[in-house]
Amino acid sequence: MKGNFNIERAEKFAHRVRWHIVETVIRHGEGHAGPSLSCTDILATLYNGVMKYDPQNPKWEDRDRLLVSGGHKCLGLYGTLVEAGFFDESVLNEYNKLNSRVPAHPDMKKLPGIDFSTGSLGHGLPLACGMALAAKKNKKDYRVFVIMGDGEQGEGSVWESASYAAAKGLDNIVGILDRNGLQINGTNAEVCNTAPLEERYKAFGWDVVIVDGHDVGEIQNALQSAPVNKGKPTMVICNTIKSKGMPFAEGSVKYHHWHPGKEEANMAVQALRDYQKERWGE
């Protein structure tokens, strides 16, 4: 699916994905809510007119590829694939159970729509390089999108592959940096300061665009304009808020991995209902 982009459609899509994330974590009792909610608007934009894909033919050879490098963000990916029509939402009831199709990190062998199994940080961009290089050699015009976190930028493999992508002119790679400033045990500045990321990627030979990571219109404009220059990969840095959509948890390290009690579960559900009513009167 690739067609005309509609902001309201993408925003409603993102809101439904947030419902899936929150309900799944509440039902299961724990999950990586914070980073999944952080990248929801990015995922919604990709699947609403940016990426080429076909849920009826998930292995379509000419589809665009997507790698969610931080596999712990899988709740966002699973909810997105439900809304995009790859599988029914009832599958989410299996989340992180024994022999589940929806484990705590995505498994390409268990569900349609997952282009590669991810988990350990730093592997997404190297994999994207391989996919993009294969597309060039096979004269295919698909693009490879890879979502990374800013905490992940402390991995050396990220910078090895960033150098490789520029050296090989892989302009069919679109990196998407979910920059929420936090990781599991603190701020990125405290744990491993990788700033300034814009200047670093430019120094490695990439074009860089910075957007509001919760404005689907801004995200869409940046992704559709890539590559900015022929022969250069593009990095779209999305400034985001961890746990976006749960006001009591936004911007807090505590909710990177959420164990909701009854009170917080009720607060999260009410916040989603209130937003839905205020935004669309529904």
UniProtKB/TrEMBL annotation:
Transketolase N-terminal domain: residues covered: 12-266
InterPro entries in alphabetical order: THDP-binding (IPR029061), Transketolase_N (IPR005474)
Gene3D superfamilies, per database record: 3.40.50.970
Matching CDD domains: TPP_TK
Pfam families assigned: Transketolase_N
Protein name per Swiss-Prot or TrEMBL: Transketolase
Organism of this sequence: Anaerobium acetethylicum
